[in-house]
Inverse folding.
């Protein structure tokens, strides 16, 4: 597993624990999204995993 895959897995796990799912936007593949794990409502979108990580850190 490369560093990117490990990082993605770690952020996905963090998102899951916080009640979200981490997805890549289908219409804008350069964008990452956090959606509510229960109903899929978009919660936050960012152009990088760094920004997703910062949002989860808040």
């Amino acid at each position: 597993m490369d560093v990117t895959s490990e990082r993605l897995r770690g952020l996905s796990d963090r998102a899951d624990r916080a009640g979200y799912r981490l997805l890549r936007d289908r219409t804008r593949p350069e964008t990452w999204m956090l959606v509510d794990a229960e109903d899929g409502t978009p919660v936050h979108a960012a152009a990088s995993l760094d920004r997703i990580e910062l949002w989860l850190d808040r």
User: Anything to note?
Assistant: The CA atoms of residues 1 and 7 lie 10 Å apart. The chain has one domain: 3-57. The first helix runs from residue 3 to 17. The helical segments are 3-17, 49-57.
